[in-house]
Amino acid sequence: MQYKNDLKEKFTVLTFLDTELTSNLVPEIEALTLDILGKAPKNLVVNCQNITQWDPEVMEAFANAQQRFYDNNASFVICSLSKGLQDSLDNTDFAEIMNMTPTESEAWDIVQMEEIERELLDSDDMEFTNPE
Q1: pTM of this structure
Q2: 24 — phi, psi (to 5°)?
């Protein structure tokens, strides 16, 4: 599996260079996303612009990874899906739960908005904490 990591201030952009993501790549995808989650910045944008086909197991791996990221107060956004990928995703239950955008720029916006939201929620928690 070939990919490129691009670190930004608040997130990492993971761009797959392969055109197909098959089920045998799921362990490697899971390890890669867990590695990114364990480092700063832990937010992840997955750019799928080069992918023309993916197996259902890959979609499931991305959905599970997204849940792990959100469970750890981090963002996970998939962007730049081709019509074929979007169609295959729409035929699953994952389409309703996955955070997707048409462009990488929009994915960046979502990550930044979610970061602001988390910061506001954290500050609200501090305001209402009773020190006694």
Answers
A1: 0.88
A2: -70, -10
